Structures are given as structure tokens and as C-alpha cells.
């Protein structure tokens, strides 16, 4: 039992923190956010040079071959800096999905390109009716000869607009809700019939609804055996969920720090408002939520690749439920304690709050995960 | 970073388990697991068994006859003991006064008192709080006046836990009324058999006799029973309160009670179905379970960090607040789980044996008869040991600093 980061993990964290502190000021974030693309290729190159985009790519594809603990060590910095670039979507989630197929040439080549930052891929999996239930896939892939034709609609796919390649899940057999019959396809951004409706989400990150109309792909663009891709998708989503939890903890820490600073310097009634006990106790409650959330982000990182899927899911649902609730409390109270200033676009506080709100809504909210946890716990 | 305990810690856990299997009598564990009261003999006989195993001075340094355990071992023992139905260790001797005597007491005091605490031969109780000195402990008024080689003590202590069983009481008394509040306090060890001491039970809402008022009327205390220096007692008092805080969350007990909640909710029926299948009730159990899981990891993080240096931040206050909230939630859900049979409220039901007397079968299931009283009793958790509001003041002082 040990909760210390290794020297290597600490160095990675320090490097990312230093880079983002220097290169990703609040002003920079705002100007990137206002740009049409909503992400900055020069930052992406900087992250690639740091090795951030290669950390979970296997060594055989030119990556560093690290795992969830290294991801944990640096994700908090991404959250704190309000990073808009697709680190989570491409360097964590899509990378994890592709690793399952790394012994096949297309996935291997893509991973090698992603490690250097030349390629960006995202997983386009969830659909609107699924409500983050991963088996709920209705997008269809129909085989004819040496090709497939895909039809369907993927909802709120993070960073799809930035991607060269979409990893699209589609049914080659079965019905929505079936565990088998789901295949995964590499879909080039330029594929005819692929339409993206790109928009910003609440915290400024870009996402898209992805429409596939008669998208024709060669059979070689299918990853792995037909109908057996769901386990790899689930594994990638679980790794992503753990990383998202770490991102959120970085944001919560930033909000607690900012709120502590604010109540120390903001004067009312001739004294700093931090002297008022009602506010002091609220900050104590924020800290308790933060530390409980941090604990669960560690648990999520340590369990997100567990082989026992039930235990893995139980830990991740517990983590997401706690982190969703903590993020809601810390975010709302940070705005509240900043008073009118907390409402403004001018302060970073409202942007952090919106990022925590996005985290709450992604991958299923706290109630969803509480229910999943209860269901997983009952059958044990 | 890893969640699993080390091999040495695992084998220590096995050692604790086998000790509990061999030494914890079903009579005692049955009372603990079913929420019945333990008496003085139950506690002392358990302490004697620990002592025979060499574990009487739990967490003490080896040179004082202690186990020399680090806080991880201490945590493992408490977790395993709680899960097996071992009695909660009464802290006043081993965990409170003993460390003070070791740190500040004379050699004679160490020889006189420590072996009997370890051996379960003497029961200690606490003389800190007074009617006018609760959270503001330093405002205490019990006076001690020097008379030759004695102090004459007059005053009243309150919220004295299980003092009806005690042989000795450690007391904070005022020896200098002129000095600044914290500077006029002395730490005395007082024999409960001393003439002039009166112990009066305080009736609590659960009907149990758990706390007392202790009155001192011209009680003569030999000077050799003063710990450390006169008027330095506040320093020792703070040391006592700050000692051994990393197991304050009671993770093991909460896990045990959560398991009991689930087992009762699985047995209770609602419209013919197990209560645990009720979506709303299941969600409330799930909520407390995930909160407990998070707190367990928070607690382990504190222990892990302590290997390097002792906890100096707000950790103990976080563990205290969140731990007590979880215990209280579980006790409330336990009461609600049994529906109408949480209502019958008979004092005898708290005592072991009553339920099994064939002439007095309780109206509902046996396990239901103690649950309302336990819920009432657990309200104390957020009040004692520094109220949760005081804990929030401490946290805020540390991080806001105003």
C-alpha cells in the first residue's frame, strides 16, 4: 500500500506542469477558444515534443509504453490549464482502443503517427439513446464483398473535428444492447458520406455530432475480428474515464486554491471575507470533497485496467460518482464564494466550473454511476 | 503507487486474524456484531488477552512494553478486529493517558501506571470537559490548590465516558487563575477511590449509561501524581488530543456495519421483495458505500504519507468529519431498514441475552430491537472529540489561515 508517485511519474508531471504554465496561460486558452478550430497545432507539437502524446503508445510503435499512473500524473495539469487540445480523446482514449489491435498494420501505423503528434484519432462510439451504456450501438455496418457500408449517428464525439481518423463502432450483427456484434472501423475524416456537425461544448472544448450515410470502407479498415470489438472499446473507455477523473481533480484543486486566495484578499465590512465562519466552513467542505475525489482518482487509475471487469467497473463507477458529486460541490461553491466575480467570463473560476460541469455530464453522471455501482454490488 | 499491502503487512494481517480466531470469544464478538452493550469485564478481559499476546500496549514504543507497531499495523489490527467483532478499544488508558505519561511523566509514573494499563488491571477515564468548557476547553474552572505535598481539587467534570468503571481519571485543572487561560492548567492523575469524588450518571436519549458527571469536593491528590510541570498541562493536553489521529475514521467498524446493513436489507421484505432491491434504498446504500470507499483510500493515503513524516495538515480533521458522517448515515439506514420494527423501544433490548430469553421474544426481528437506540447513540460522533464544526475551524485555519 503506497500512494507515492515514482520519480519518473513526478518528472513527467513536472515537465507537463512547467510547459503548460509557460505556454498555456489563461489568455492563451481564451484566444485558442475564440479561434475557429478551437485547438492550437503549435501546442499540439509542443506536447508531442514533451512526449505527452506518446506516453501510452507501445514502444513498438515508437511510444513510451506507460500506463494509467503516468496518465494520472499529468492529467491534473491538463485540467488546471483548461487544455482544449485532444489529449484525452486522442492520446489516451483512441490510443488505448488502438493498442488492442496494434499487431495489425493499420492500427500500428496510426499509433506511430499519433505518438509523434502527426496523427489525431478519436473514438466515435456513444449514441444519443445509449446514455453512456456502451453496448447500445445502433450504427450499422453492412458487408458487401470486400467492403462495408456504414450508416448511423454518433452523439457529441469529443474533438472529432480535429481528428484525421475516427474509430467508429458499428453493428455487424445483433441489436442495440447486445454485447457481441460490434465492430470497430478506421474511418478517414475525408470519407465520402461522413458529415461532422462541429460545435463547442460548455467548457469550450470542441465536439461534433457525427453522421454516417452510406460510408463505404474497405474491409481492411475493420479492426480485429468482426463483431468482437466491444471489449477493446470498453477497455479504452474505462482508461479514459480514469483519466477524466484525474483531469477533474486538477480543476478542483485549482478552484480550491483560487477560492482560498480570493477570500483572503476580498475585503467586506472592513475585513477579509475569509474571516467569516460560514465561508471558512464551506472551504473546509470543499477541501474534504477534493481529497475524497483525489482518492477516487487514484483508485480509478489503479483499477481501470484490472482484468476482473466487474471489479474494474465497480471501482470506476464509484470513482465517477464521487468525482461528479465533488466536482459539482466544489465548482458551485467556488462560484458562490467569488460572489458576482464568480459569474463573470473574465475570471478563470467560471471556466473551471464549466469544465467540471462537462466532466459531470461525460461518461454518465453521478446518479447513473451510483445505479451501476449498486447493481454491480448486489450481484457479488 | 499500489493499493495492495506489502507482503510483510499481509502476513501481519494473517497474524492478527489468527489471533482473533483463537482469542476472541463468541460471547464477546456476538455482542459486538449485534450491537449489544459490553460491560467492564468484557473490555478488561479482552485487554488481558491482548496483553497475554504482547499487544496490551498497542502502538506504544517497545521500551515501554508496547507493540512498537507503526500506524499501518495499528490500522490493520483495528480493521481486522472490527470486522471480527472485537470490542472497540477503550482509548482513555492505552491511547490517551499512556502516551502523555511516556512523553512527559516521571520514571516512577511510567513504572507505576503503564504496566497496569497494558495488563487490563486498571481502567482509566477522562476529566477534560466541564459544563462551561466544551469546545472552549481552555476555559475550564476545576481548581487545584497546593497544600503541602498535595493538591486540593474542587470542581466538576462532565461527559466522562464510562467513569463508573474507572480506577483512575486524568484531569485538567486550573492551578493559576491569574495567568492567561492556557498557561494556568495542570495535568493530574487522580485515583477514583479518593474521598470527595462523586460520579453521577447522565441519562442520554438512547437510555444507556455511557457518560457521567464527576464532582470533586476537596479531593487530595499527591504531588507525585502531577504529570510534568505545574501550569504546563495545556501542552500535554494538546499532545494527547493530537496523538494517534490517523485511525480516527473507524474504517473497519464502518465496513462491518455496512455489511450488517446490507444483510438486514437483504432479509427485510417490502411487498414480498427484498428491501435491497428497492432502487431508492439501494442507491442510498450505494452512496454511503462509495463515500466509505473514498474515505478508506483517503485514510490509506494519510498512512502512506506518514511513513515519511507525521501528518501535520488537516488530515485528521478530514478523517474525523467524513468518518463520523458515514457512521451516522449507516446507523440511520440500519434503523430505517427495519421499517415499523425500529419503533419498539425497550431499554432491556440493548443488553445481550434479552432477545434470547424465550419468555420475552422481541416484537419484530431480533436484530431490529437495538437499531433506533444505536442511531440515537451515534449522534454523539459529530459532537465528541472536537465537534465537526471545530474540525472545520481547524481545517480552515490551516488552509485559509485567517
Number of strands of chain B: 10
Distance between the termini of chain B: 35 Å
**Overall tally of domains of chain A:** 3
Largest sheet of chain A: 4 strands, mixed
| The CATH homologous superfamily of the largest domain in chain A | Butyryl-CoA Dehydrogenase, subunit A, domain 3
- Beta content of chain A comes to 15-25%
- The number of strands of chain A is 10
Low-confidence stretches of chain B: none
Lateral strand order in the biggest sheet of chain A = 1-4-5-8
Please identify, by name, the CATH architecture of the largest domain in chain A.
Answer: Up-down Bundle
Can you give a write-up of this model?
The complex is a heterodimer of chains A (380) and B (402). The relative contact order of chain A is 0.11. Chain A is α+β, with helices and mostly antiparallel strands. Helix content of chain A is 52%, strand content 16%. Chain A folds into three domains: 7-120, Acyl-CoA dehydrogenase/oxidase, N-terminal domain (Butyryl-Coa Dehydrogenase, subunit A, domain 1), CATH 1.10.540.10; 122-226, Butyryl-CoA Dehydrogenase, subunit A, domain 2, CATH 2.40.110.10; 231-378, Butyryl-CoA Dehydrogenase, subunit A, domain 3 (Up-down Bundle). Chain A has a four-stranded mixed sheet. In chain A, strands 2-3-7-6 form a four-stranded antiparallel sheet, with no helix packed on it. Chain A has a two-stranded antiparallel ribbon with strand order 9-10. Chain A is globular and about 80 Å long. Chain B has helices spanning 7-23, 26-34, 40-52, 71-84, 91-104, 107-118, 233-242, 251-267, 279-306, 315-337, 371-378, 388-399; strands at residues 124-127, 143-147, 150-161, 168-174, 185-191, 197-202, 211-222, 226-227, 269-270, 273-274. Chain B is globular, with a radius of gyration of 22 Å. In chain B, 41% of the residues are buried. The model of chain B has no long low-confidence stretch (mean pLDDT 94). The A-B interface holds A 1-6, 9, 69, 256, 260, 263-264, 272, 274-275, 277, 280-281, 283-285, 287-288, 291-296, 298-299, 301-303, 318, 321-322, 367, 370-371, 373-374, 377-378 and B 1-6, 9, 72, 276-277, 279, 282-283, 285-287, 289-291, 293-295, 297-298, 300-301, 303-305, 314, 317-318, 321-322, 389, 391-393, 395-396, 399-402.
Amino acid at each position: 500500500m503506497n500512494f507515492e508517485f515514482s520519480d519518473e511519474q513526478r518528472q513527467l508531471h513536472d515537465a507537463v506542469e512547467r510547459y503548460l504554465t509557460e505556454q498555456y496561460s489563461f489568455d492563451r486558452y481564451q484566444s485558442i477558444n475564440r479561434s475557429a478550430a478551437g485547438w492550437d497545432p503549435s501546442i499540439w507539437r509542443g506536447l508531442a515534443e514533451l512526449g505527452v502524446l506518446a506516453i501510452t503508445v507501445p514502444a513498438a510503435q515508437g511510444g513510451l509504453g506507460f500506463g494509467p499512473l503516468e496518465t494520472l500524473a499529468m492529467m491534473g495539469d491538463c485540467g488546471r490549464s483548461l487544455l482544449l487540445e485532444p489529449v484525452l480523446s486522442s492520446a489516451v482514449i483512441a490510443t488505448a482502443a488502438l493498442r488492442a489491435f496494434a499487431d495489425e498494420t493499420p492500427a500500428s501505423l496510426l499509433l506511430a503517427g499519433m505518438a509523434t503528434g502527426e496523427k489525431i484519432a478519436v473514438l466515435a462510439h456513444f449514441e444519443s439513446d445509449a446514455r453512456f451504456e456502451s453496448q447500445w450501438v445502433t450504427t450499422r455496418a453492412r458487408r458487401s464483398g470486400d467492403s462495408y457500408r456504414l450508416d448511423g449517428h454518433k452523439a457529441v464525439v469529443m474533438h472529432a473535428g480535429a481528428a484525421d481518423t475516427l474509430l467508429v463502432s458499428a453493428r455487424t450483427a445483433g441489436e442495440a444492447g447486445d454485447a457481441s456484434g460490434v465492430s470497430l472501423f478506421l474511418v478517414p475524416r475525408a470519407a465520402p458520406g461522413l458529415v461532422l456537425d462541429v460545435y463547442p461544448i460548455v467548457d469550450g472544448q470542441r465536439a461534433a455530432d457525427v453522421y454516417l450515410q452510406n460510408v463505404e470502407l474497405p474491409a481492411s479498415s475493420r479492426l480485429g475480428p468482426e463483431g468482437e470489438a466491444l471489449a477493446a472499446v470498453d477497455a479504452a473507455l474505462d482508461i479514459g474515464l480514469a483519466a477524466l477523473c484525474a483531469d477533474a481533480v486538477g480543476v478542483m484543486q485549482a478552484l480550491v486554491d483560487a477560492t482560498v486566495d480570493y477570500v483572503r484578499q476580498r475585503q467586506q465590512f472592513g475585513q477579509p471575507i475569509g474571516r467569516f465562519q460560514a465561508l471558512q466552513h464551506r472551504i473546509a467542505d470543499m477541501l474534504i470533497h477534493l481529497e475524497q475525489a483525489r482518492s477516487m482518482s487514484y483508485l480509478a487509475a489503479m483499477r481501470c485496467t484490472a482484468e476482473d471487469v466487474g471489479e474494474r467497473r465497480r471501482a470506476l463507477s464509484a470513482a465517477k460518482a464521487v468525482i461528479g458529486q465533488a466536482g459539482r460541490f466544489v465548482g458551485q461553491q467556488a462560484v458562490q464564494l467569488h460572489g458576482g466575480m464568480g459569474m463573470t467570463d473574465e475570471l478563470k473560476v467560471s471556466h473551471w466550473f464549466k469544465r467540471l460541469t462537462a466532466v459531470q455530464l461525460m461518461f454518465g453522471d453521478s446518479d447513473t454511476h451510483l445505479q451501476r455501482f449498486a447493481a454491480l454490488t448486489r450481484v457479488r | 503507487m499500489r493499493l495492495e499491502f506489502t507482503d510483510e503487512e499481509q502476513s501481519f494481517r494473517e497474524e492478527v486474524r489468527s489471533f482473533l480466531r483463537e482469542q476472541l470469544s463468541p460471547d464477546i464478538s456476538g455482542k459486538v456484531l449485534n450491537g449489544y452493550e459490553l460491560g467492564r469485564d468484557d473490555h478488561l478481559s479482552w485487554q488481558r488477552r491482548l496483553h497475554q499476546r504482547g499487544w496490551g500496549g498497542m502502538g506504544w514504543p517497545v521500551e515501554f512494553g508496547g507493540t512498537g507497531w507503526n500506524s499501518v499495523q495499528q490500522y490493520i489490527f483495528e480493521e481486522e478486529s472490527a470486522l471480527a467483532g472485537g470490542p472497540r478499544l477503550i482509548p482513555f488508558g492505552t491511547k490517551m493517558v499512556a502516551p502523555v505519561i511516556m512523553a512527559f511523566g516521571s520514571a516512577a509514573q511510567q513504572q507505576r501506571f503503564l504496566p497496569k494499563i497494558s495488563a487490563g488491571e486498571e481502567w482509566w477515564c477522562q476529566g477534560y470537559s466541564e459544563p462551561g468548557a466544551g469546545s472552549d476547553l481552555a476555559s475550564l474552572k476545576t481548581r487545584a490548590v497546593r497544600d503541602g505535598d498535595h493538591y486540593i481539587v474542587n470542581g466538576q467534570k462532565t461527559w466522562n465516558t464510562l467513569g463508573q468503571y474507572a480506577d483512575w481519571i486524568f484531569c485538567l485543572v486550573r492551578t493559576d487563575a491569574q495567568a492567561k487561560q492556557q498557561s494556568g492548567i495542570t495535568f493530574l492523575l487522580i485515583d477514583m477511590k479518593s474521598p470527595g469524588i462523586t460520579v453521577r450518571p447522565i441519562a442520554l436519549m438512547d437510555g444507556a449509561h455511557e457518560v457521567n458527571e464527576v464532582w470533586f469536593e476537596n479531593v487530595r491528590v499527591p504531588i507525585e501524581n502531577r504529570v510534568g510541570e505545574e501550569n504546563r498541562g495545556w501542552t500535554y493536553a494538546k499532545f494527547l488530543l493530537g496523538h494517534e489521529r490517523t485511525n480516527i475514521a473507524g474504517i473497519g467498524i464502518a465496513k462491518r456495519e455496512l455489511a450488517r446493513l446490507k444483510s438486514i436489507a437483504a432479509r427485510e421484505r417490502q411487498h414480498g421483495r427484498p428491501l435491497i432491491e428497492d432502487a431508492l434504498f439501494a442507491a442510498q446504500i450505494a452512496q454511503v458505500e462509495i463515500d466509505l470507499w473514498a474515505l478508506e483510500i483517503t485514510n490509506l493515503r494519510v498512512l502512506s504519507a506518514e511513513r515519511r513524516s507525521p501528518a501535520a495538515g488537516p488530515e485528521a480533521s478530514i478523517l474525523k468529519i467524513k468518518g463520523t458522517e458515514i457512521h451516522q448515515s449507516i446507523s440511520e439506514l440500519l434503523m430505517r431498514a427495519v421499517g415499523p420494527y425500529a419503533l419498539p423501544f425497550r431499554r432491556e433490548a440493548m443488553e445481550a441475552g434479552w432477545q434470547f430469553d424465550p419468555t420475552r421474544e422481541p416484537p419484530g426481528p431480533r436484530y431490529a430491537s437495538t437499531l433506533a437506540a444505536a442511531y440515537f447513540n451515534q449522534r454523539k460522533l459529530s459532537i465528541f472529540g472536537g465537534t465537526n464544526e471545530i474540525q472545520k475551524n481547524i481545517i480552515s485555519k490551516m488552509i485559509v489561515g485567517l
